[in-house]
Structure formats: structure tokens, C-alpha cells
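Morning!

This is the sequence you dropped in the shared folder:
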Amino acid sequence: MRIEDIIFITAMGPPGGGKSVITPRLQRHFNVITYTNLGEESVTMIFQKILNAFVGGFSEAVKDCISNIVQSSQVVFHAVA
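The structure's back. C-alpha cells below.
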């Protein structure tokens, strides 16, 4: 049996709370990419653009709800976080 062209995509958080440290021996097989948390204005802009593209064919009543949907989503996210 021969396996070719396999791509693994993984995600992890910092160690602690049940998450273990990844050993250098395993980590050497991956490209490590990190990011910083975005500000509220950036998240609002990104989600508004995504929703505008998604609801492009919907009525104006639906399009008018986009800012409320984004703002409500952020309120729920911050309450849960």
C-alpha cells in the first residue's frame, strides 16, 4: 500500500486546561502559524462583508438586518468567552 499527497491541517490552543505540550519531535513536521486577536472594528468589517456577499440576492429587509446580526453575534461571543 502506498499513500501519497496527504495534507494534515490541525489547530491547537496554548497548553493548559487539559491541553498537552506538543513535543519538538512532532512539531517539526508542521508549519506553525499564529495570529493575534482582531479588534472589534476589524471583526465587524469582515463579517459585514461576508454577510453582504451572502445575502446579495435577498430583499432589502434582509440586507438591512446585517449590522444587527453582526453586532448581536459579537455580543453573544463576548458573553460566552
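Headline: The chain has a mean pLDDT of 89.

More detail when I'm at my desk.
O.
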